[in-house]
Amino acid sequence: MSPTFSALSVRNYRIYALGGLVSNIGTWLQNTAQAWLVLQLTGSGAALGITVALQLLPSLLFSPIAGVLADRMSKRRLLAIMQLGMALPCGVLGVLAVTGLVETWQVYILTFVFGSARAFEAPARQSFVSEMVDIERLANAVSLNSASFNSGRLIGPGLAGLLIAALGSGVDATGWVIVINALSYGFTLLALVLMDGTVLHRPPMAERGRGAVREGLRYVRSRPDLLLLFTCVFFLGAFGMNFQITSALMATEVFGKGAGEFGVLGSILAIGSLAGALLAARRSHPRLRFIVGAGLVFSVAQMVSGLMPTYWSYAAVLPLVGLSVLTTATTANALIQMTSAPSMRGRVVSLYLMVFLGSVPLGAPIIGWFGEHLGGRAALVISGATVGVGIGVAGLAYARVRRVSLRSLVPRWPLRHHVTEDGLDQHPS
């Protein structure tokens, strides 16, 4: 099998990846439909930013606790419970929209409830990969997970736009699309049931007791390489990955397009994102330098996209945006899992997700405000520049710390001559 897809030779991972692909398509159906629903209800870029923030805010609030839970109980069981926890609020929101009873405050509450379930599901899902495959295939499996997610992004937004347009582009049309997503979680649940639990590589369970979250924080603080990775993904999440906002504003405000064209932008972005995930899948030994470089490429591509004069020229830059951002995020995720102690992996991954996904609620209202008051173009240029400065400064700081650490390891030889056993006079080098 090709090195790009080597993890698929493992039966458990193959079943899990298939169920995840269907669920990921449903997720992107909802993301697109939900953004369109908010715009239909409010016409406000700021309201869209608040919705995205409320959906991701639980990652900031609950991820450390979720990581401890993932280290203390069966990840497979936890994942099954959380599939139901995510399906329920999606189903309620879809029904409210279909019946025409939905209001903006209901969207806010239900997206927060959904985000809470996802906050507890995500650390278990990310770290569960290491139980399905061996260490040699771990980076590949993590990257293929991202490829699956972005295959959903490739298919979902365009399909959502077509479905919404075909159903009349109204509030009720978005509801039907959201209901489809609620049903898609059943495929992941089925995959978990069909897996062979006897061949999973289960790590030792973390001991119960106080201080588990603090222990995870101390572990991360002791690792400068992890701190660099966390800083990179923070700037990506807070200022770079607000595509639901920026693409919606560019499609509607800047280029005057509708739901179909908005959905197409998401699919075009996913072409590059899928390529980035597959590129990362070929790297069995990720490197920090590669991650920093890819983040800086994203910064430039994001700024360039905001300067494009037409809808199609903007769309033409999006594959590079997707390629660079997913290469950065996926490779960082793989490196974090490969270098973390197995008993700490759930907590480290949860902190990674807290920083990565939890940073989006911090940046989403800011980007939404820029988009509403300065325009979609300004929002893209400012966000890209901020990502570049943040990652660049973090990379330089890490290089400085590393040089200091290496110098501290050099033995301090006495600056004097000495005589060896063979009688030769030598000076230490």
Automatic annotation (TrEMBL):
<feature type="transmembrane region" description="Helical">
    <location>
        <begin position="35"/>
        <end position="57"/>
    </location>
</feature>
<protein>
    <submittedName>
        <fullName>MFS transporter</fullName>
    </submittedName>
</protein>
<feature type="transmembrane region" description="Helical">
    <location>
        <begin position="288"/>
        <end position="305"/>
    </location>
</feature>
<feature type="transmembrane region" description="Helical">
    <location>
        <begin position="226"/>
        <end position="250"/>
    </location>
</feature>
<dbReference type="Pfam" id="PF05977">
    <property type="entry name" value="MFS_3"/>
</dbReference>
<keyword id="KW-0472">Membrane</keyword>
<dbReference type="InterPro" id="IPR020846">
    <property type="entry name" value="MFS_dom"/>
</dbReference>
<dbReference type="InterPro" id="IPR010290">
    <property type="entry name" value="TM_effector"/>
</dbReference>
<keyword id="KW-1003">Cell membrane</keyword>
<keyword id="KW-0813">Transport</keyword>
<feature type="transmembrane region" description="Helical">
    <location>
        <begin position="311"/>
        <end position="336"/>
    </location>
</feature>
<dbReference type="InterPro" id="IPR036259">
    <property type="entry name" value="MFS_trans_sf"/>
</dbReference>
<feature type="transmembrane region" description="Helical">
    <location>
        <begin position="377"/>
        <end position="399"/>
    </location>
</feature>
<keyword id="KW-1133">Transmembrane helix</keyword>
<dbReference type="InterPro" id="IPR001958">
    <property type="entry name" value="Tet-R_TetA/multi-R_MdtG-like"/>
</dbReference>
<dbReference type="GO" id="GO:0022857">
    <property type="term" value="F:transmembrane transporter activity"/>
</dbReference>
<feature type="transmembrane region" description="Helical">
    <location>
        <begin position="262"/>
        <end position="281"/>
    </location>
</feature>
<feature type="transmembrane region" description="Helical">
    <location>
        <begin position="78"/>
        <end position="99"/>
    </location>
</feature>
<feature type="transmembrane region" description="Helical">
    <location>
        <begin position="12"/>
        <end position="29"/>
    </location>
</feature>
<keyword id="KW-0812">Transmembrane</keyword>
<feature type="domain" description="Major facilitator superfamily (MFS) profile">
    <location>
        <begin position="12"/>
        <end position="402"/>
    </location>
</feature>
<dbReference type="GO" id="GO:0005886">
    <property type="term" value="C:plasma membrane"/>
</dbReference>
<feature type="transmembrane region" description="Helical">
    <location>
        <begin position="177"/>
        <end position="200"/>
    </location>
</feature>
<feature type="transmembrane region" description="Helical">
    <location>
        <begin position="348"/>
        <end position="371"/>
    </location>
</feature>
